[in-house]
Specification:
The chain contains 16 helices and 16 strands. It has about 475 residues and is α+β, with helices and mostly antiparallel strands.
Length: about 475
């Protein structure tokens, strides 16, 4: 049995996992509550291709740290502290450390969401201690490295558990406060080790962020607190180590989707529902009604959060650029009203069905034909879809009416069954005359009329409507003399 207290009584499971779809799977052993995503990350982070256990893989980089701590006379259970952070999914070393490569800048990432408890809230004291342990451990792991990086991740997950809107001043205050605590504790750890591992340079004085309601005793900085650069705080790029911690949103990025890759609700989405007192059934009903309960912040909110924490973080990713303004699609309600009109245009039956928004405005159309060819019906079906998407994305019905009325092709002629339209120059002409009559009552649309001929210069061009695939009279006459020859 292991002598590491953090592992006592922990249930584990075995899984076959691969670093990627093209790699051969390897048997991994990890805590029973950890998902397959964590198993795949463990398989990828551990060198070799044979079986691997989380305990052995973690001990590979934790044991040297513990040995150096003992040789340095540090009276603390560093080994158990690091294993406990990993098993609680609060923090772990970054990919480079797990893989045992050269340590130019050894790194450690802290999962902010894991420091939050549903009953007690965010444990700021535990977070501050974890930041100190992380910086101390990385300095012990590679004393000769000029810098070490300690970062934080899944800020969006924490904010959801706290019931805070990511795009809010309160959320940005939390982000700034946590960044300040991280920076202060990382500096305190590196300052404490300065006598053992070399002098550290002074850095600029940083202002204290706004006070934030977090559980525990937050580490606040005096106005003249000297910060040091050797312990680099960072918002790093996504890494596999975050998958071990169950991180859903990397760094300080917002949650861009409420769904996992397998189509289930993310932990962040479930936390959002719990914070708002909403059940999954109520969320489904709201979504079907066209009202999503999940706010999905855009690049502007991400940029604002970036600005809020940048003063306290040494290494930041590029500031998100605001996305160009786009027309937002207006979603139709799941259950909607509309009309169904049956009419006959030039002897051809057509069904026109509409779907409406709650205010009665037009949102979609369906066109049903029965006598036309399969190709013609398919084209008309897709044309109706294109018009519907246009209506839902801001195109005005008047624009469609202007574009498609008075189009001339067969079938055309007298309209039966629709008192609002008596004559149409084509099926499309009929469709948009009907829509104008029902959804644009004040639109002044001239009546359609037969125009047997259009004058072109001094000549006359026949503009009689043609049925689909109908041949002109001259060609039809010649067709009678044709005969089928089998070869």
């Amino acid at each position: 049995m292991t002598k590491i207290p953090a592992w006592h009584g922990l249930r584990t499971r075995k899984a076959d996992a691969a670093a990627d779809p093209d790699s051969a799977p390897r048997r991994v052993v990890l805590p029973a509550s950890w998902d397959d995503r964590a198993a795949a990350a463990l398989a990828a982070l551990t060198p070799g291709d044979g079986p691997v256990t989380l305990l052995d893989a973690a001990t590979g980089w934790i044991a040297p740290i513990a040995q150096r701590a003992r040789r340095a006379g540090m009276d603390m259970p560093m080994e158990n502290e690091l294993h406990a952070l990993l098993l609680s999914r609060r923090g772990t070393a970054t990919d480079q450390v797990w893989r045992g490569g050269g340590f130019k800048t050894p790194g450690f990432v802290l999962n902010l969401a894991a420091f939050h408890d549903a009953e007690d809230g965010f444990d700021s004291e535990a977070f501050g201690r974890a930041a100190w342990i992380a910086a101390t451990a990385m300095a012990l792991l590679s004393p000769s490295s000029p810098t070490l990086a300690v970062g934080m991740s899944d800020l969006a997950g924490l904010l959801a558990r706290m019931g805070l809107d990511y795009d809010s001043e309160a959320a940005r205050d939390v982000g700034a406060h946590l960044a300040c605590v991280l920076r202060a504790e990382a500096d305190r750890a590196s300052s404490g080790l300065a006598e053992r591992f070399g002098a550290l340079a002074e850095a600029d004085v940083l202002p204290v962020p706004p006070a934030t309601k977090l559980r525990g005793t937050p580490v606040m900085l005096a106005a003249n607190h000297p910060m040091r650069h050797a312990a680099t705080t960072a918002i790093s790029a996504p890494c596999l180590a975050e998958a071990l911690l169950g991180v859903e949103t990397c760094g300080i990025a917002p949650a861009f989707s409420p769904l996992t890759d397998s189509g289930t609700l993310t932990a962040t989405a479930r936390a959002t529902l719990a914070a708002n007192g909403m059940t999954a059934e109520a969320a489904l009903a709201a979504t079907l009604a066209g009202r999503s309960p999940f706010a999905l912040p855009g690049s502007a909110a991400h940029a604002a959060m970036h600005d809020a924490v940048a003063a306290y973080i040494t290494v930041m990713p590029a500031r998100p650029e605001a996305a160009p303004a786009q027309d937002s699609r207006r979603r139709l309600p799941a259950r909607r009203h509309g009309t169904t009109q049956r009419a006959i245009v030039g002897g051809h039956k057509i069904f026109l069905q509409t779907g409406e928004y709650e205010d009665g405005s037009l949102g979609e159309i369906f066109i049903g034909l029965h006598k036309e060819s399969a190709a013609f019906r398919g084209l008309m079906d897709n044309f109706a879809i294109a018009v519907s998407l246009g209506l839902q994305n801001g195109v005005k019905l008047a624009d469609f009416v202007e574009a498609f009325t008075f189009t001339r092709f067969g079938p055309a002629g007298a309209v039966e069954g629709d008192p609002a339209v008596t004559h149409a120059t084509s099926l499309l002409d009929y469709v948009f005359r009907n829509l104008a009559a029902n959804y644009m009552p004040n639109y002044d649309l001239p009546e359609a009329s037969d125009e047997a001929h259009d004058t072109v210069g001094d000549g006359v061009r026949d503009r009689s409507p043609l049925l689909p695939l109908e041949l002109p009279q001259e060609a039809a006459t010649k067709r009678r003399s044709l005969r089928l020859v089998a070869k």
